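Re: the multi-chain job from yesterday

Posting the exact lines I submitted so nobody has to dig through the queue logs.
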Amino acid sequence: MNALILSAVFGVVMMFSGILLKQKSAVRNLAIAGILLLLVSNVLETYGTAFFKVNVNGMMYFDRLALFFNTIVFVSALLYFLLTAKDMEKVGVNYAEYFALIFFILCGITLTSSFKSLLILFLGIEIISIPLYILTGTDKRNLKSNEASLKYLLLGAFSTGLMLMGIALIYGAKGTFSTEGANLVTDKPSVLLVAGMILLLFSMSFKASAAPFHFWTPDVYDGAPTVFTSFMATIVKAAVFIAFIRLFDEAFGTLRAQWQLWIAVITAATLFIGNITAVFQQSVKRMLAYSSIAQAGFMLLSLYAMNTDAKEGILLYVTAYSFATIGIFAVLARMNDYTFDGFNGLAQKDPLVAGSLTVFLLSLAGIPLTAGFLAKFYMLKATIATPQGLWLAIFAILMAAVSVYYYFRVIQAMYFKEGDDAKAPETTPVFRGTLVILAALVILLGIFPDLLLHWFYF
Amino acid sequence: MFHLLQTGLNSTDAGSYLPVGIQILIAIGLVAFLMFATHMLGPKRKTTDKLQNFSSGIESHGDARQPMAIKYFLTAILFVLFDVEVIFFYPYAVNFRELGWNGFWAVLMFVGFFLCGFTYIIKKGALKWED
Amino acid sequence: MSHKKGSQLIAQGSKLKKGMPINYYIFLSLALFAIGIVGVLTRRNAIIIFMCIELMLNAVNLLLVAFSKMHHAANVAVNATAGTDGQLFVFFIMVVAAAEVSVGLAIIVMMYRNIHSVDVNFLNRLKH
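And the result, structure tokens for all chains:
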């Protein structure tokens, strides 16, 4: 509750900071202070200090999972601000408003991580989506950005319509929006309930960019300004996944026989399409968009398995994926050339940045001693534990092997190819420091995942 | 009439999809047949007059779409937003007495956020009519 | 609640109100919803696509209100406020739809100012 109210208030504060503060660095520092405040207040609530006593009528539930996930999100957002806040200046003139929109998105994320009612789920998803439509189109003169924004808006609104129809049908069957109410299923669920569940499944896969509902993802991620693609592909995607998992665990847990096969097919399709298409990309930004689809496939495995390992694993996975992807996008946002050739010879020009980038890419590919490896390991372990989960796990391993190819292309370009005379991207000490810390965290979590998971229970 | 929506879910054997299959076949067949039939049977006369706009015999000129100043659009959009938000006052008005002071503070907070948005709009100059 | 009980409930609700049975509302709003989906998938004008999305949302609103009435009629003896949450949801959908529309129209205007068209077929720059 702390983070929810403070993020909404801070969104308004950032809105006015654009009018009151003249200097961009002041706005930036205010935003970083705000995210720190959110982080601290959320950790305080985890230890039992709630600032606000609000009667939510059982519509929300701030349990350990929700609070812990919020902490992960705020840490990622803090690192994101430290790395890329300066690059947002290049996008357009409304610098403070970008931060305001991001704070509103964070408000939506706290809703999606803690909902107990389908109403809150709907509001959370919409509060995340609407600012994202705007952020995608912030590069107003760029036709690609316009196009991405319109495409995202039309398809996003369409999937919202599907979600609402699903919610309405569930309400018809159950007479309540509570996710616990939906769970009271006996032997034979009504057709209305199952139809509503399938519609919700489709719309959530849409928001999580799972195949065959992924087609908007590459275009939108490619067209949006790189700094915002970074936010969209990491923190927002994680929030959608946590909502997805909470919904299907709490509301439709007893209907599992009905949806498990759907999820298995969607997972396999997502892994296949994401990985295979990523191989053929020429632009690193577009490759990362497809890679985010591929990683979503791995995250879907936790939805398929839905046991303790899966729930721990998704938290680790989300952390590992967000940290690594934020790092890569932060470097990418400072490059002039987004093709693979743009990375040629980066190791000679800037060994530190190239080294951290290598750590992130290794983590995404799932090489041992990085967080990405353990995250993938948890997912596969959870999948194998379920009956008939073995073939899906084997398929996922095959696809992970394919993914090594396109991640290593970047590493190869950085270390084994001669670059032209163009200078390395400019970096500030803060940027370099944060990048190294991020890389260190990725390795640390890869060796001691308990550092993270211990907090989940403590 | 309603029984289609209420069939049991347990009958998932392939045989129960037979009616659906037949339905699809008939639907596709009918569409294909009709398209083929109209294509073969209908007469075709292609003249340039058919492609012209028809406006009571008067020749059309100019474009109906005149460029409009963006401030009209901005005002209209802001009106829609603020107009629709007022919807939350209806349930409050109905339950005014039952909700008591708690409801009052909640609505006051809502109006407060609302006014923040309004101040922001004015400060940004979105409602400035003269350039 | 089992499927049998659900259909009983539906029958009960429609009997109690003595009005139209709930089935008609379900069919009407599903038809409206389907029209909206077909419109989104086949039209090329961004504004018409947007109107079709609004049609989808309004179909949902209609269905929610109908279900709300149905649950209210079925449970009013137990709980005087049964079914009101459905109508509250409608308020939220309307407000969110308004926010979405204002953002959407702003994006469409932005696009129009750049390419002087609202035809979504122009949106192919991102395809390689």
